[in-house]
Design goal:
With about 400 residues, the protein is of the alpha/beta class. It has twelve helices and 17 strands.
Protein backbone atom coordinates (compact mmCIF):
# COMPACT_ATOMS: atom_id res chain seq x y z
CA UNK A 1 0.00 0.00 0.00
CA UNK A 2 1.37 3.39 -1.02
CA UNK A 3 1.40 5.87 1.86
CA UNK A 4 1.46 9.64 1.71
CA UNK A 5 4.18 11.89 3.07
CA UNK A 6 1.87 13.27 5.75
CA UNK A 7 4.12 16.23 6.46
CA UNK A 8 2.62 17.72 3.31
CA UNK A 9 -0.76 17.78 5.06
CA UNK A 10 0.68 20.05 7.75
CA UNK A 11 0.87 22.91 5.22
CA UNK A 12 -1.90 25.49 5.70
CA UNK A 13 -4.81 24.74 3.38
CA UNK A 14 -4.62 28.21 1.85
CA UNK A 15 -1.65 29.76 0.08
CA UNK A 16 -1.69 33.42 1.12
CA UNK A 17 -0.36 34.58 -2.25
CA UNK A 18 -3.32 32.76 -3.81
CA UNK A 19 -5.60 34.62 -1.39
CA UNK A 20 -4.22 37.90 -2.72
CA UNK A 21 -5.03 36.79 -6.29
CA UNK A 22 -8.55 35.72 -5.27
CA UNK A 23 -9.28 39.09 -3.70
CA UNK A 24 -8.03 40.88 -6.81
CA UNK A 25 -10.19 38.68 -9.04
CA UNK A 26 -13.22 39.37 -6.84
CA UNK A 27 -12.60 43.11 -7.22
CA UNK A 28 -12.42 42.74 -11.01
CA UNK A 29 -15.73 40.86 -11.06
CA UNK A 30 -17.44 43.46 -8.90
CA UNK A 31 -15.91 46.43 -10.72
CA UNK A 32 -15.12 45.24 -14.25
CA UNK A 33 -14.61 48.74 -15.68
CA UNK A 34 -12.28 50.04 -12.97
CA UNK A 35 -8.60 50.41 -13.84
CA UNK A 36 -6.52 48.63 -11.22
CA UNK A 37 -2.77 49.26 -10.80
CA UNK A 38 -0.76 46.33 -9.47
CA UNK A 39 2.17 47.20 -7.17
CA UNK A 40 1.93 43.83 -5.48
CA UNK A 41 3.59 42.38 -8.55
CA UNK A 42 6.33 39.84 -7.85
CA UNK A 43 7.39 39.65 -11.49
CA UNK A 44 9.48 41.82 -13.78
CA UNK A 45 7.94 43.89 -16.57
CA UNK A 46 10.94 44.97 -18.69
CA UNK A 47 11.62 42.76 -21.74
CA UNK A 48 14.74 40.66 -22.14
CA UNK A 49 17.85 42.60 -23.21
CA UNK A 50 18.73 42.44 -26.90
CA UNK A 51 22.05 40.74 -26.06
CA UNK A 52 20.12 37.89 -24.44
CA UNK A 53 17.68 37.59 -27.35
CA UNK A 54 20.54 37.49 -29.85
CA UNK A 55 22.32 34.77 -27.87
CA UNK A 56 19.15 32.70 -27.71
CA UNK A 57 18.62 32.97 -31.48
CA UNK A 58 22.19 31.83 -32.08
CA UNK A 59 21.74 28.94 -29.62
CA UNK A 60 18.55 27.85 -31.39
CA UNK A 61 20.45 27.89 -34.69
CA UNK A 62 23.06 25.66 -33.05
CA UNK A 63 20.35 23.18 -32.20
CA UNK A 64 19.34 23.04 -35.88
CA UNK A 65 22.86 22.13 -37.03
CA UNK A 66 24.08 18.56 -36.56
CA UNK A 67 27.66 19.80 -35.97
CA UNK A 68 26.61 22.22 -33.21
CA UNK A 69 23.62 20.36 -31.75
CA UNK A 70 23.51 19.92 -27.95
CA UNK A 71 21.61 17.04 -26.34
CA UNK A 72 21.86 16.24 -22.66
CA UNK A 73 24.13 18.77 -21.03
CA UNK A 74 26.05 18.42 -17.76
CA UNK A 75 23.62 18.41 -14.84
CA UNK A 76 25.90 20.85 -13.02
CA UNK A 77 25.85 23.34 -15.91
CA UNK A 78 27.95 24.15 -18.96
CA UNK A 79 31.46 25.27 -18.14
CA UNK A 80 31.22 28.39 -20.35
CA UNK A 81 28.52 29.77 -18.03
CA UNK A 82 30.18 28.64 -14.83
CA UNK A 83 33.43 30.30 -15.89
CA UNK A 84 31.60 33.54 -16.75
CA UNK A 85 29.90 33.55 -13.34
CA UNK A 86 33.19 33.07 -11.48
CA UNK A 87 35.04 35.69 -13.50
CA UNK A 88 32.37 38.39 -13.31
CA UNK A 89 30.47 37.81 -10.06
CA UNK A 90 33.23 36.59 -7.75
CA UNK A 91 36.79 37.20 -9.04
CA UNK A 92 35.97 40.91 -9.29
CA UNK A 93 35.34 40.88 -5.52
CA UNK A 94 38.46 38.95 -4.62
CA UNK A 95 36.59 35.64 -4.28
CA UNK A 96 38.19 32.59 -5.91
CA UNK A 97 36.06 29.61 -6.88
CA UNK A 98 36.46 26.51 -9.05
CA UNK A 99 33.95 25.72 -11.83
CA UNK A 100 32.84 22.58 -9.99
CA UNK A 101 31.77 24.75 -7.04
CA UNK A 102 29.13 26.44 -9.24
CA UNK A 103 25.86 24.63 -10.01
CA UNK A 104 23.45 26.00 -12.62
CA UNK A 105 19.77 25.56 -11.72
CA UNK A 106 16.27 26.64 -12.74
CA UNK A 107 15.88 29.19 -9.97
CA UNK A 108 16.31 29.84 -6.26
CA UNK A 109 12.80 28.75 -5.31
CA UNK A 110 13.25 25.12 -6.36
CA UNK A 111 16.86 25.00 -5.21
CA UNK A 112 15.94 26.04 -1.65
CA UNK A 113 13.69 23.00 -1.46
CA UNK A 114 16.07 20.64 -3.24
CA UNK A 115 18.94 21.30 -0.82
CA UNK A 116 16.75 19.74 1.85
CA UNK A 117 17.47 16.36 0.22
CA UNK A 118 20.89 16.43 1.90
CA UNK A 119 19.68 17.45 5.35
CA UNK A 120 18.19 15.33 8.13
CA UNK A 121 14.59 16.02 9.05
CA UNK A 122 15.49 16.69 12.71
CA UNK A 123 17.75 19.67 11.98
CA UNK A 124 16.55 22.86 13.66
CA UNK A 125 15.97 25.83 11.34
CA UNK A 126 16.00 29.58 11.82
CA UNK A 127 14.54 32.19 9.49
CA UNK A 128 14.46 35.96 9.57
CA UNK A 129 10.82 36.98 9.93
CA UNK A 130 9.21 38.31 7.74
CA UNK A 131 10.65 36.27 4.88
CA UNK A 132 9.70 34.69 1.55
CA UNK A 133 7.48 31.71 2.52
CA UNK A 134 9.31 29.05 0.49
CA UNK A 135 12.13 28.96 3.05
CA UNK A 136 9.77 27.58 5.66
CA UNK A 137 7.33 25.64 3.50
CA UNK A 138 10.08 23.60 1.82
CA UNK A 139 11.15 22.50 5.31
CA UNK A 140 7.57 21.80 6.36
CA UNK A 141 7.22 19.26 3.53
CA UNK A 142 10.31 17.47 4.87
CA UNK A 143 9.08 17.48 8.47
CA UNK A 144 11.62 19.97 9.81
CA UNK A 145 9.14 22.77 10.54
CA UNK A 146 6.91 20.87 12.97
CA UNK A 147 3.25 21.75 13.45
CA UNK A 148 1.55 24.87 12.11
CA UNK A 149 -0.50 26.67 14.76
CA UNK A 150 -1.71 30.28 14.92
CA UNK A 151 0.51 31.42 12.08
CA UNK A 152 3.72 29.84 13.36
CA UNK A 153 5.57 26.55 12.95
CA UNK A 154 6.50 24.81 16.17
CA UNK A 155 10.07 23.84 15.20
CA UNK A 156 11.06 27.09 13.49
CA UNK A 157 13.08 29.77 15.25
CA UNK A 158 11.71 33.09 14.02
CA UNK A 159 14.43 35.73 14.10
CA UNK A 160 12.40 38.88 14.53
CA UNK A 161 13.10 41.39 11.80
CA UNK A 162 11.75 44.77 12.87
CA UNK A 163 12.41 48.48 13.24
CA UNK A 164 14.35 48.03 16.49
CA UNK A 165 17.08 45.98 14.77
CA UNK A 166 16.82 47.77 11.39
CA UNK A 167 15.34 44.55 9.96
CA UNK A 168 18.73 42.80 10.24
CA UNK A 169 18.52 40.40 13.21
CA UNK A 170 21.74 39.14 14.75
CA UNK A 171 22.53 35.56 15.83
CA UNK A 172 20.69 34.23 18.90
CA UNK A 173 22.37 33.04 22.08
CA UNK A 174 21.46 29.41 21.35
CA UNK A 175 22.50 27.11 18.46
CA UNK A 176 20.44 26.60 15.29
CA UNK A 177 21.45 23.97 12.73
CA UNK A 178 20.30 25.68 9.51
CA UNK A 179 19.88 29.44 9.09
CA UNK A 180 18.23 31.19 6.13
CA UNK A 181 19.45 34.71 5.36
CA UNK A 182 18.46 36.98 2.47
CA UNK A 183 20.37 40.19 1.68
CA UNK A 184 19.11 42.50 0.32
CA UNK A 185 15.99 41.09 1.87
CA UNK A 186 12.59 40.45 0.30
CA UNK A 187 10.30 41.96 1.59
CA UNK A 188 11.92 44.50 3.96
CA UNK A 189 14.73 45.69 1.69
CA UNK A 190 17.29 45.55 4.51
CA UNK A 191 20.86 44.58 3.63
CA UNK A 192 23.54 43.17 5.94
CA UNK A 193 26.85 45.01 6.34
CA UNK A 194 30.13 43.09 6.33
CA UNK A 195 30.37 43.43 10.09
CA UNK A 196 26.89 42.02 10.58
CA UNK A 197 27.50 39.11 8.21
CA UNK A 198 30.76 38.33 9.99
CA UNK A 199 28.80 37.80 13.20
CA UNK A 200 26.63 35.25 11.38
CA UNK A 201 29.63 33.48 9.88
CA UNK A 202 31.38 33.36 13.26
CA UNK A 203 28.16 32.01 14.80
CA UNK A 204 27.91 29.28 12.17
CA UNK A 205 31.54 28.26 12.64
CA UNK A 206 31.14 28.10 16.42
CA UNK A 207 27.89 26.12 16.31
CA UNK A 208 28.69 24.01 13.20
CA UNK A 209 25.62 25.52 11.55
CA UNK A 210 24.80 25.81 7.85
CA UNK A 211 23.87 29.19 6.35
CA UNK A 212 21.73 29.29 3.22
CA UNK A 213 22.38 32.77 1.84
CA UNK A 214 19.94 34.10 -0.76
CA UNK A 215 21.64 36.84 -2.80
CA UNK A 216 18.98 37.06 -5.52
CA UNK A 217 18.86 40.86 -5.32
CA UNK A 218 22.60 41.56 -4.91
CA UNK A 219 22.82 43.38 -8.26
CA UNK A 220 20.60 46.14 -6.82
CA UNK A 221 22.99 47.00 -3.99
CA UNK A 222 23.86 50.71 -4.19
CA UNK A 223 26.51 51.05 -1.48
CA UNK A 224 30.14 49.81 -1.62
CA UNK A 225 29.88 48.99 2.09
CA UNK A 226 27.29 46.25 1.53
CA UNK A 227 28.69 42.83 0.54
CA UNK A 228 27.32 41.23 -2.63
CA UNK A 229 28.38 37.75 -1.53
CA UNK A 230 28.68 36.07 1.84
CA UNK A 231 32.08 34.80 0.66
CA UNK A 232 33.43 38.31 1.07
CA UNK A 233 33.52 37.31 4.74
CA UNK A 234 36.53 35.25 5.83
CA UNK A 235 35.55 31.71 6.77
CA UNK A 236 32.18 31.77 5.01
CA UNK A 237 33.18 29.03 2.56
CA UNK A 238 33.28 26.63 5.50
CA UNK A 239 29.66 27.23 6.52
CA UNK A 240 27.61 28.82 3.72
CA UNK A 241 25.78 27.98 0.51
CA UNK A 242 24.98 30.98 -1.69
CA UNK A 243 22.06 31.13 -4.12
CA UNK A 244 21.56 33.63 -6.95
CA UNK A 245 19.15 34.15 -9.81
CA UNK A 246 18.97 35.81 -13.23
CA UNK A 247 15.24 36.47 -12.72
CA UNK A 248 15.29 39.97 -11.24
CA UNK A 249 18.47 41.18 -12.93
CA UNK A 250 18.02 39.91 -16.50
CA UNK A 251 14.27 39.32 -16.61
CA UNK A 252 14.57 35.52 -16.58
CA UNK A 253 11.39 34.89 -14.59
CA UNK A 254 10.02 33.11 -17.67
CA UNK A 255 13.29 31.49 -18.80
CA UNK A 256 14.24 30.07 -15.37
CA UNK A 257 17.95 30.15 -14.59
CA UNK A 258 19.99 30.69 -11.47
CA UNK A 259 22.98 29.18 -9.73
CA UNK A 260 24.14 27.81 -6.41
CA UNK A 261 27.63 28.02 -4.93
CA UNK A 262 28.72 25.09 -2.75
CA UNK A 263 32.40 25.49 -1.83
CA UNK A 264 34.56 22.40 -1.41
CA UNK A 265 35.52 23.66 2.04
CA UNK A 266 31.93 23.19 3.22
CA UNK A 267 31.42 19.93 5.10
CA UNK A 268 28.38 18.49 6.80
CA UNK A 269 28.46 16.08 9.71
CA UNK A 270 26.87 12.66 10.07
CA UNK A 271 25.27 11.48 13.30
CA UNK A 272 28.38 9.45 14.13
CA UNK A 273 30.65 12.48 13.65
CA UNK A 274 32.02 11.96 10.14
CA UNK A 275 32.53 15.11 8.04
CA UNK A 276 31.36 14.80 4.43
CA UNK A 277 32.12 17.28 1.65
CA UNK A 278 28.75 18.78 0.71
CA UNK A 279 29.93 19.72 -2.78
CA UNK A 280 30.46 16.08 -3.70
CA UNK A 281 27.07 15.07 -2.30
CA UNK A 282 25.28 17.86 -4.17
CA UNK A 283 26.97 16.99 -7.48
CA UNK A 284 25.83 13.40 -7.03
CA UNK A 285 22.29 14.51 -6.11
CA UNK A 286 22.07 16.66 -9.24
CA UNK A 287 23.20 13.76 -11.40
CA UNK A 288 20.40 11.64 -9.96
CA UNK A 289 17.48 14.10 -9.89
CA UNK A 290 18.18 16.94 -12.33
CA UNK A 291 18.61 16.99 -16.12
CA UNK A 292 20.13 20.45 -16.16
CA UNK A 293 19.07 23.82 -17.57
CA UNK A 294 18.67 23.94 -21.35
CA UNK A 295 21.59 24.91 -23.58
CA UNK A 296 19.58 27.79 -25.06
CA UNK A 297 18.84 29.24 -21.61
CA UNK A 298 22.45 28.91 -20.44
CA UNK A 299 23.66 30.69 -23.59
CA UNK A 300 21.18 33.45 -22.76
CA UNK A 301 22.54 33.69 -19.20
CA UNK A 302 26.13 33.80 -20.44
CA UNK A 303 25.23 36.74 -22.72
CA UNK A 304 24.47 38.87 -19.65
CA UNK A 305 28.24 38.85 -18.93
CA UNK A 306 29.22 40.35 -22.29
CA UNK A 307 30.05 44.07 -22.25
CA UNK A 308 26.78 44.83 -24.01
CA UNK A 309 24.87 42.52 -21.69
CA UNK A 310 26.34 44.09 -18.55
CA UNK A 311 25.49 47.59 -19.80
CA UNK A 312 21.92 46.56 -20.60
CA UNK A 313 21.46 44.93 -17.21
CA UNK A 314 22.71 48.08 -15.49
CA UNK A 315 20.11 50.07 -17.42
CA UNK A 316 17.32 47.69 -16.39
CA UNK A 317 18.39 47.74 -12.74
CA UNK A 318 18.60 51.54 -12.77
CA UNK A 319 15.12 51.71 -14.33
CA UNK A 320 13.58 49.76 -11.45
CA UNK A 321 15.60 51.66 -8.85
CA UNK A 322 14.49 54.99 -10.30
CA UNK A 323 10.92 53.68 -10.06
CA UNK A 324 11.30 53.00 -6.36
CA UNK A 325 13.10 56.30 -5.67
CA UNK A 326 10.30 58.19 -7.40
CA UNK A 327 7.69 56.29 -5.40
CA UNK A 328 9.46 57.10 -2.17
CA UNK A 329 9.76 60.82 -3.06
CA UNK A 330 6.03 61.11 -3.68
CA UNK A 331 5.03 59.19 -0.54
CA UNK A 332 7.59 60.70 1.86
CA UNK A 333 5.62 63.91 2.64
CA UNK A 334 2.84 61.76 4.11
CA UNK A 335 4.91 61.00 7.24
CA UNK A 336 4.68 57.30 6.61
CA UNK A 337 7.34 54.99 8.02
CA UNK A 338 8.88 53.75 4.79
CA UNK A 339 11.70 51.21 4.62
CA UNK A 340 13.48 49.56 1.71
CA UNK A 341 13.98 51.16 -1.67
CA UNK A 342 17.73 51.66 -1.10
CA UNK A 343 19.15 48.33 -2.26
CA UNK A 344 16.04 46.68 -3.67
CA UNK A 345 13.04 47.90 -5.71
CA UNK A 346 10.53 47.27 -2.91
CA UNK A 347 9.07 49.61 -0.32
CA UNK A 348 8.18 48.15 3.08
CA UNK A 349 5.60 50.47 4.62
CA UNK A 350 4.26 50.47 8.15
CA UNK A 351 0.48 50.69 8.14
CA UNK A 352 -0.49 54.14 9.50
CA UNK A 353 -3.75 52.88 11.06
CA UNK A 354 -4.76 50.13 13.47
CA UNK A 355 -5.86 47.97 10.56
CA UNK A 356 -4.43 44.51 9.99
CA UNK A 357 -2.36 44.08 6.84
CA UNK A 358 -5.28 42.25 5.16
CA UNK A 359 -7.69 45.03 6.07
CA UNK A 360 -5.32 47.70 4.81
CA UNK A 361 -4.75 45.70 1.60
CA UNK A 362 -8.50 45.58 0.92
CA UNK A 363 -8.99 49.23 1.82
CA UNK A 364 -6.22 50.23 -0.59
CA UNK A 365 -7.66 47.93 -3.25
CA UNK A 366 -11.20 49.35 -3.13
CA UNK A 367 -10.42 52.97 -2.25
CA UNK A 368 -7.22 53.72 -4.16
CA UNK A 369 -7.57 50.97 -6.78
CA UNK A 370 -3.97 49.94 -6.10
CA UNK A 371 -2.72 46.44 -5.28
CA UNK A 372 -0.07 45.94 -2.59
CA UNK A 373 1.11 42.78 -0.83
CA UNK A 374 -0.07 42.43 2.79
CA UNK A 375 2.88 41.88 5.09
CA UNK A 376 1.35 38.88 6.84
CA UNK A 377 1.93 36.89 3.63
CA UNK A 378 5.63 36.89 4.55
CA UNK A 379 5.11 35.53 8.04
CA UNK A 380 3.88 36.71 11.44
CA UNK A 381 6.57 39.42 11.58
CA UNK A 382 5.01 41.04 8.53
CA UNK A 383 1.79 41.96 10.29
CA UNK A 384 1.33 45.71 10.38
CA UNK A 385 3.14 46.31 7.08
CA UNK A 386 2.53 46.17 3.34
CA UNK A 387 4.98 45.82 0.47
CA UNK A 388 4.90 47.91 -2.71
CA UNK A 389 6.83 46.67 -5.73
CA UNK A 390 8.64 48.89 -8.23
CA UNK A 391 8.99 46.07 -10.76
CA UNK A 392 6.10 47.65 -12.64
CA UNK A 393 6.03 50.01 -15.61
CA UNK A 394 7.08 53.61 -14.93
CA UNK A 395 3.65 55.13 -15.56
CA UNK A 396 1.97 52.51 -13.38
CA UNK A 397 4.34 53.30 -10.51
CA UNK A 398 3.81 57.03 -10.90
CA UNK A 399 0.02 56.85 -11.16
CA UNK A 400 -0.29 54.33 -8.33
CA UNK A 401 1.60 56.39 -5.76
CA UNK A 402 -0.32 59.51 -6.78
CA UNK A 403 -3.52 57.59 -6.09
CA UNK A 404 -2.12 56.47 -2.74
CA UNK A 405 -1.11 60.02 -1.85
CA UNK A 406 -4.60 61.33 -2.62
CA UNK A 407 -6.21 58.47 -0.70
CA UNK A 408 -3.99 58.74 2.39
CA UNK A 409 -4.27 62.52 2.56
Amino acid sequence: MALLNEYFLELPSDDLFSDVAKKINTFKVLRPHTELIDLGINDVTSPLPSSVIEAMHKAVDDMADSTRFHGYGPEQGYEFLRDAIIKNDFNTRGIHLMPNEVFINDGVKSEIGNIGDLLRSDNTIGVIDPIYPVYIESNAISGRAGIFNKGRWSNVCYLNCNESNAFTPMPPEFPIDIVYLCSPDNPTGAAYSKGQLKKWVDYAIKNKALILFDASYEAYIQSPDIPHSIYEIRGAKKVAIELRSFSRTAGFTGLRCGYTIIPKELTIQTLDGRKIQMNTLWSRRQSIRFNGVSYVTQCAAAATYSELGKNQLRQTIEFYMENVRMMRRILSPLNLKIYGGEHIPYLWIKIPTKSSSWEFFESMLYSAKVVCTPGIVFGPGGEGYVRLSAFAKREDCKNAVKRLKDWLE
